[in-house]
């Protein structure tokens, strides 16, 4: 009997995806460049379902029913291209190749076009949830042709996480849309993590609470609006003590955050599209700052602090302020991320349904959170919402947190606690709601030194002023400007 789906690349993610399909009663063809991994999967999980192993790529392809559905789960980059090259001559019209790795979306756009020339469908799919998600139900973000989803979608929906009976998987959009959305998901994840880290630092420095006490605070927060996987694991991390020394484990970890690159891609793309995703950018730069060792060395003990002793009068009230600041900043980070998805969707012709993205992030993935229900509802109220932050629900929620948010950011500044994500989110909030911005002055400066022209509030058209001469103003045709 032919297999319904195949997985090539049986490192932990591929292996767990294959097992997930098998556990759901699907016959799964399995293949790996070196056969030992295929054998070990059979030895350890062979009894979980029906696996159809092959030693060669040709046998693997031959073991699949048509249209073939082949998932590639190898290291992103040249390995993916190598496997694609190997597959192309073995496949037939309408077969579907799925890249479930963490590809950069421009690569996915290129590969989709390449496979289309051979009459093949290429599906770049984001998969989030780590190893455990892959096995027990990830959030899946498949792109590619809509037609490919007819045949592939039901299988992916079957193995995806479920929330309220709904699968955390839906068709995202053409070519690179799936990997793009996964990229922004990871960017939001950076912001979420940084915000949680800032909250921890504020409480630690502001109240002197121990890691174990802060773990309890996060556990309480996890029962409210902030309920999420990241808050939950943060509580677990903070409660963990070193077996040998009995110290809080977090205090024994080197304070230099690393990154694999999806945050950087998100920020690079936001700069290309001109979308201010300041929360994600600050979170990405905060990791970079933590790793800037020569600079930190040069600054330590040398740069003045001029702070007063942090004087928190009412610990519970302060912790509640931090909670509200975290919530408000988190809304900003998501609002910015969804703006980026909207801008990319327009730029690349993807027609992405943002409400559906929030829906499939509710389970399986790293940013899964109760909060995402509210985002889905906001886009259900208005699919083309220009600003998530300005949705009635979120405008009210953030509005009622505003006083706390300002106290926290002001306190942090006064006491020398770096809160780049909290502070920049508040600056964004005040910027985006401003009646009038100092951008008017920027325009005048640009016109002064570069004759870049400006527009006026009181009449249409473009203008240039002779700043270094008699300051007379010339009206220009719009095409001339
Ligand atoms: P391997 O077990 O033969 O090394 C993660 O590295 C996974 O990607 C592994 O299953 C690995 O196969 C596979 N992989 C890495 N580079 C590859 C390539 N160029 N061609 C095929 N598979 C590759």
TrEMBL record:
Pfam families: 6PGD, NAD_binding_2. It catalyses: 6-phospho-D-gluconate + NADP(+) = D-ribulose 5-phosphate + CO2 + NADPH. It is an enzyme of class 1 (oxidoreductase). GO terms for molecular function: NADP binding; phosphogluconate dehydrogenase (decarboxylating) activity. NADP(+) binds at residues 9-14, 32-34, 74-76, 102. Residues 461-474 have a biased composition (Basic and acidic residues). PROSITE patterns: 6PGD. One of its GO terms (biological process) is pentose-phosphate shunt. Residues 178-468 form the 6-phosphogluconate dehydrogenase C-terminal domain. Substrate binds at residues 102, 128-130, 185-186, 190, 260, 287, 446, 452. The active site is at residues 182, 189. Pathway: Carbohydrate degradation; pentose phosphate pathway; D-ribulose 5-phosphate from D-glucose 6-phosphate (oxidative stage): step 3/3. Its EC number is 1.1.1.44. Keywords: Gluconate utilization, NADP, Oxidoreductase, Pentose shunt. Catalyzes the oxidative decarboxylation of 6-phosphogluconate to ribulose 5-phosphate and CO(2), with concomitant reduction of NADP to NADPH. Belongs to the 6-phosphogluconate dehydrogenase family. Homodimer. PANTHER family: 6-PHOSPHOGLUCONATE DEHYDROGENASE. NCBIfam families: gnd, PRK09287.1. This is 6-phosphogluconate dehydrogenase, decarboxylating. It comes from Friedmanniella luteola.
